[in-house]
Design a protein that fits this description.
Strand content: 15-25%
Shape: rod-shaped
Strand order of the largest sheet: 2-1-5-4-3
Order of helices and strands: HHHEEHEEEHHHHEHEEHEEHEE
Oligomer: single chain
Structural class: alpha+beta
Distance between the termini: 47 Å
Number of helices: 11
Radius of gyration: 50 Å
Amino acid sequence: MTNPVHRALSAVTSRLSLATRILVLTAATVGFVLATINASVYFVLRDELVHSLDDALLQRAENAVENHTTEDIIRGYQPEALSLGGVQVGVIYGGTLFKTEALDDLAAMQYVSSVEREVALGRSEHSTRTARINGTHYRVVAVNAGSGKALVLAQSAESIYQSLRRMNIILWATSGAGILVAALAGWLVASTGLRPVRRLTSATERVARTQQLTPVEVHGHDELARLGSSFNAMLAALDASQQRQRQLVADAGHELRTPLTSLRTNIELMEQAFASDRPLSPEQRREVMDDVHGQLAELTTLVGDLVELARDEPLRRSPEAADFATVVEAAVDRVRRRAPGLTFDVRLQPWMFFGEPFILERAVINLLDNAAKWSPEGGTVTVRLADGRLTVTDEGPGIPPQDLPHVFERFYRSSEARTQPGSGLGLSIVAQAVARHGGSVTADSSPGRGAVLTVRLPGWSPGPDAPIS
């Protein structure tokens, strides 16, 4: 069950700003430390002063006992040699107090207590205590003088207590000033330290209100500067994501426009033919329907590629490993059925990986489809897999040097590729699928000697001593 005091403090502090809480915490901490120091200084100094006074009184009492001053006091003499200056002197003998003339009425004010009588009886060598007599603080010491006697000295300690009171006032005044300075310093530190946080808060509110991803200014190299840099990096990543999203939408709209326009044209043509007195001939209808089927197939492929590219969820790694060679072999079998006029030269070595085999199979199919599209009739597509390195080589015209840096970009199509069917998304899907598995893909080509596409996939050889990572 929560402490009511804790709940009350939490309720109060929750309504304060962070800067105010820092100010209060700083002032409270400094106040506690100064109070502890003040108390320690006060009690230590008081004990030192009192002990010094006690030592002086005890030394005087012992010297007086050695000089037989107690006997003189009992006989009623007061030698002039006994000049103790403000020290009250008395002797306890047989339970009776013998006093000097300077003692006056101190006996009536309980100047002597049972403590001094215990010293007179020899039960202790000496005693010290503080007595308040007539409103004045006295330190009273007693020294055993033998034969049932004790010499008692008392001296005013008012000067000590006055000094302590003055010192106490100075200490607490200094502590109050220290607390005020600490509170001011806490406020300055909180205001200065939280300024970057306020800027980040304003920037976040501005982004939420205006959708403008303007980075914030970053100064210094401390933790708050790192926070600002991280915030700017997040804004940059968000801006890049938005740019990619807008580019994807724009490119998708551009690519979808062609098959949709063709479908609309064919449909309008058939409507006009049905509405007129001159219907289409069987050959014309077949030609129109073939064109419609082709456009629908291209549209279906394009939509599927767009859906694949739009997937932003992280890779779900399965605890079970998969063999990349099996994935490549399945992809080759599917493409071989679609391209019966080509020869596929395949040599695969096992290579284990963690990931999603379906996604990689789709990527390998795109690689093989690209090679099959550019290979001449009766040509050979060479597929090799060794040590996690997959190469697909065709016998096509190759990729021009100016197009090599762009072949994996979305919707990019070279001038030669624009005469071929396709949307320009196949190799983009390959790059995305391989990157999601921690790998990389590159393209190399020499004009007239075909293209070589290489996929490097992290994993391990399924040998008996191979690590699983």
